[in-house]
Fold this sequence. Notes:
Distance between the termini: 47 Å
Structural class: alpha/beta
Order of helices and strands: EEHHEHHEEHHH
Number of strands: 5
Strand content: 15-25%
Helix content: 40-55%
Number of helices: 7
Largest sheet: 5 strands, mixed
Amino acid sequence: LKDLPGFNGIWAGSDESGKGDFFGPLVVAAVACDEKSASRLFSLGVKDCKIVSDKDVLKMKDEICSAALAVSVLALTPKMYNYRYNQLKAAGQNLNHLLSSGHAAALTGVIGKCPGCGYTLVDRFAVHNEKYPAVKVVQMPKAEADIAVAAASVLARAEFLRIMAELEAQAGIPLPKGGSDAATSCARIIAEKFGKESLANFVKLHFANYKRI
């Protein structure tokens, strides 16, 4: 980002968690930082959440919130996710539109708290930021290598884990992560226990797993 025109040393990055999980929410987070806060995040050992244990993710969450210039975390619980997904499908749109709007909303949240931010970094979505048109969006493959995106990935994962714990308490059984056969089997148990219609509160209904129940 340093070589980009007008870059003033303040930027934001966003990432999501839960996109590939049959159970649980979709969470998008954004983090804004400058050189000083980026260096603090590095010293905390912040990395892309895929290479950090869930235990460390939960430990880092508060440290990231205090080190960053601004953070924004938005979660769609399964019930709200299914509602929004059906809305978009009826409008001829798809999951990428849902992700794109989530990233835009999270980034808009941090830019509002950090008006000096001139650039945002995203992994692969065409994010349209209508509220702050002067802020430039940079799409970069493997964007999680950037510290702001990595920090956002940790915050998104922490919120995903928090909501999963709530859903597990409601279900009364552990809920598998991912989209494996174990997740399908677990959903069958919940359907038998509470009725198939209850699954809308626990799972993403458009996943192939749901068709196998």
